[in-house]
């Protein structure tokens, strides 16, 4: 599916015996030491360059870099300015979800991909960015003093709502979020022919609702001091490549951060964290983000709350935020105003850990044919969503072995 | 860590384009950006053109990626300032990309 260029690739190997996946191997060639290029650079250079390199989730990466650098510099930034940045991150997450649905889900359904929805969302995001940041780059450390009152952007959010309603939800997003349980969701999936409705119905009807179900736990809030210790330790490179919490791999995805929604709670009871729960979580987040963007814009003029102080020490900055694919962490150490160390801990390393949620989901997968196995694995990988290409290889095995991960 | 790769369109087809980049030639879907003239720079992510780039943007990103690769391979004599040169251009607007030069 993807070559191993500078961006790297995930190599996913499945041992397949008598219709069941036994051995699972996940290896990554991602350039995790990339942030070393920032050593010796000034904060402004890093803030300007980093979003260029990580150009697909540039907003989340730029925001995390700016916040980490500001913390390390002890640079005061208006909470309102930070709120604007976080709203832009939320919009980027929404855009990524629309991308997955309109382009990837269409392929799984053998329907031709439609570009109109993604094109419109990209255009709205550019307008949103211009409205929130008329002064220029949102990620310049220190930001700018807001000269304009908070923008309303009501018309843009109305357009967004109409677009999602017409192309994905077939009803107002906030009404869709009120679907209380699995039965209501299945009923909704039968009512129309949007890509989302068709994919959910297919997953349900093909008996794949529990596909990939496993017991890997959700990553909870991470203490900044703990992260700093792990990212400073002698095995920090290993932690960045294969992160763990107290020795255990964890999951950080839209599903883990939205799982308190009643609809997901209902799905979990029957299907655990299987495929139907995961694809529904993407829809839950997409619908919820529309309301959260509207509320966030309305809240921009509210009295500013003080930010938490820097508890990691002078010259050290740690930023954590929820990006499209899960928790993103940046940690910077500055010495004499220059970067002495820069680390990025990305969600793909948690979720595609050799013993993580994908590896556990793939182990034990059953399929009648190699083609069927490949389709199931592709669906599960797409639902967990790596931020890099992958090569899936299936190895027929003569000897029997129980599911293992390596 | 979503790294996109700048590529230049050398032949636009119906819904795809043959593109040339630092890793050679590839066919890239252009559904999102629509048909583009030859010579246009695009950002390729997982086989899809995510957006149209100016030549200057493409140059800045490519420089940064070259450095990443050189460091990963432990290549001697790496110019650590190369990807930052454009960004240190005094005519660059605060936080923005280098100003566009003539041409696409």
Features of this protein?
heterodimer; A: alpha/beta; Cytochrome-c3 Hydrogenase, chain B; 4-stranded mixed sheet; 3-stranded antiparallel sheet; 7 strands; B: alpha+beta; 5-stranded antiparallel sheet; elongated
Q: How many beta-strand segments of chain A? A: 7
Gyration radius of chain A, rounded? 22 Å
Secondary-structure class of chain B: alpha+beta
Strand content of chain B: 25-35%
Look at the structure and give the mean pLDDT of chain B.
77
Uncertain spans of chain A: none
Strand order of the largest sheet of chain B: 3-2-1-4-5
Q: Segments of chain B where pLDDT lies below 50 for 5+ residues?
A: 87-104
Query: Alpha-carbon distance between the termini of chain A?
Result: 22 Å
The outline of chain A comes out as globular
Radius of gyration of chain B equals: 15 Å
Explained architecture:
- The complex is a heterodimer of chains A (406) and B (104).
- In chain A, strands 6-1-2-7 form a 4-stranded mixed sheet. A 3-stranded antiparallel sheet of chain A has the order 3-4-5, with helices on both faces.
- The mean pLDDT of chain A is 91.
- With 406 residues, chain A is of the alpha/beta class.
- Chain A has helices spanning 43-53, 58-73, 79-108, 116-132, 154-169, 173-176, 182-190, 195-205, 224-232, 236-241, 254-258, 262-271, 275-298, 347-351, 357-362, 370-384; strands at residues 10-17, 20-28, 316-323, 326-335, 338-345, 390-396, 404-405.
- Chain A has one domain (9-142, 150-405): Cytochrome-c3 Hydrogenase, chain B, CATH 1.10.645.10.
- Chain B has 104 residues and is α+β, with helices and mostly antiparallel strands.
- In chain B, strands 3-2-1-4-5 form a 5-stranded antiparallel sheet, covered by helices on one side.
- Chain B starts with a strand and ends in a 32-residue tail after the last helix.
- Chains A and B meet through α1 and α4 of A and β5 and α1 of B.
């Amino acid at each position: 599916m993807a070559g191993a260029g500078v961006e790297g690739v995930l190599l996913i190997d499945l041992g397949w015996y008598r219709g069941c996946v036994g051995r699972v191997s996940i290896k990554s060639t991602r350039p995790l030491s990339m942030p070393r290029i920032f050593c010796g650079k000034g904060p402004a250079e890093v803030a300007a360059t980093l979003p260029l390199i990580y150009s697909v989730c540039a907003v989340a990466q730029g925001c995390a870099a700016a916040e980490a650098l500001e913390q390390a510099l002890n640079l005061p930034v208006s909470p309102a300015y930070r709120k604007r940045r976080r709203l832009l991150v939320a919009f980027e997450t929404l855009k990524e979800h629309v991308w997955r649905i309109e382009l990837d889900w269409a392929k799984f359904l053998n329907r031709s991909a439609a570009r109109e929805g993604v094109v419109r969302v990209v255009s709205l995001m550019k307008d949103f960015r211009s409205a929130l940041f008329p002064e220029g780059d949102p990620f310049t450390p220190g930001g700018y003093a807001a000269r304009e009152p908070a923008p309303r952007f009501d018309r843009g959010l109305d357009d967004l709502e109409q677009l999602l309603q017409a192309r994905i939800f077939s009803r107002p997003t906030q009404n869709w979020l009120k679907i209380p349980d699995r039965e209501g969701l299945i009923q909704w999936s039968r009512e129309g022919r949007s890509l989302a409705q068709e994919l959910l119905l297919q997953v349900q009807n093909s008996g794949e609702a529990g596909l990939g179900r496993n017991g890997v736990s959700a990553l909870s809030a991470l203490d900044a001091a703990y992260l700093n210790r792990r990212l400073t330790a002698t095995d920090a490179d290993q932690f960045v490549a294969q992160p763990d919490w107290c020795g255990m791999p964890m999951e950080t995805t839209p599903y883990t951060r939205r799982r308190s929604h009643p609809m997901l709670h209902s799905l979990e009871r029957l299907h655990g964290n299987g495929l139907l729960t995961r694809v529904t979580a993407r829809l839950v987040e997409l619908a919820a983000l529309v309301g959260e963007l509207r509320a966030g814009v309305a809240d921009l003029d509210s009295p500013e709350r003080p930010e938490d102080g820097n508890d990691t020490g002078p010259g050290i900055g740690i930023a954590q935020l929820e990006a499209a694919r899960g928790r993103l962490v940046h940690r910077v150490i500055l010495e004499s105003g220059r970067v002495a160390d820069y680390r990025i801990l990305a969600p793909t390393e948690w979720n595609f850990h050799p013993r993580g949620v994908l590896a556990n989901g793939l182990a034990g997968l059953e399929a009648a044919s190699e083609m069927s196995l490949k389709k199931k694995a592709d669906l599960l990988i797409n639902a967990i969503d790596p931020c890099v290409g992958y090569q899936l290889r299936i190895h027929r095995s003569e000897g029997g072995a129980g599911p293992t991960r390596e | 860590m979503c790294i996109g790769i700048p590529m230049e369109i050398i032949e636009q087809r119906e819904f795809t384009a043959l593109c040339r980049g630092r890793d050679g030639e590839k066919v890239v879907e252009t559904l999102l950006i629509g048909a583009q003239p030859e010579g246009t720079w695009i950002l390729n992510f997982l086989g899809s053109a995510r957006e149209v780039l100016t030549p200057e943007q493409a140059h800045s990103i490519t420089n940064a990626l070259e450095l990443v690769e050189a460091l990963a391979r432990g290549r001697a004599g790496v110019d650590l300032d190369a990807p930052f040169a454009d960004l240190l251009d005094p005519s660059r607007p605060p936080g923005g990309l280098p100003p566009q030069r003539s041409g696409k």
